[in-house]
Please model this.
Amino acid sequence: MHLKKLGLVNFKNYSNAELDLCPKINCFVGDNGVGKTNLLDAIHYLSLCKSYLNFTDTESILYGTDFAVVQGEFDLNEKKEEIYCALQHDKRKVFKRNRKEYSKLSEHIGLLPLVMISPLDSTLILDGGEERRRFMNQVIVQYDKHYLEMIIKLNRIISQRNKLLKDIGEKGTGFDTLDVFDQQLVETGEMIFQKRHEFTEKLVPIFQQYYDYISGRREKVELVYRSQLADGDYHRLLVENRDRDLFLRYSTLGPHKDDLVLNLFGHNIKKAGSQGQQKTFLVALKL
Model:
């Protein structure tokens, strides 16, 4: 795959820009604040339909303008692919492939696989499990389209189940519906658990290879996928913890509590690793 051309209109600090890129390594060089990282974020949009840096699309629109456009021309399997993304205030994002608009953005994910390494990645080590779940999800969805649908479904079920738990606590009704949500949660949750388990099984030896190369084989590292679903039958666990969920009024068990434990010499790298070791860990993980 080769990104041949990149075009920007009102994207972040670029009012208008066009770049022709070579098929090998491309380097963006310039002073601080001129927009080098913004170019990388534009490429991230073309691959994953969203910014790597901003939570909302409107933050990517040049201040004082109403819209932004990011366009890219790719050589993919010796075939030209034109990708178009348009952002507007208070309007739905428009995404097109070869001038045909997607009905769902999820249809695009995985066409143009991408890995981005950024100083912001320190959150993978320093923040909570949500960041590491997001990392697993972003990798898996790029090679498994069905997985993205499962994640969306899981989030919807958890949200609805949490609302029901609050309603039961306040009104005392809805227990029958809770059984229905539990069954949906089990079906979706077990599939996600299996996909994440398979992913980490494949990731660990590759990660170890890159870490050994960078560190000179001087340090022992490991990745451990930690999930409540590994402790037994998910449905049984939900039943056993139902009173707890009702008391706390939210779902305490499931893939939404999974984590990827990052260890150095058997200890969590957040506490045991120096800044240099943490950066080496992150680079190897991303590679």
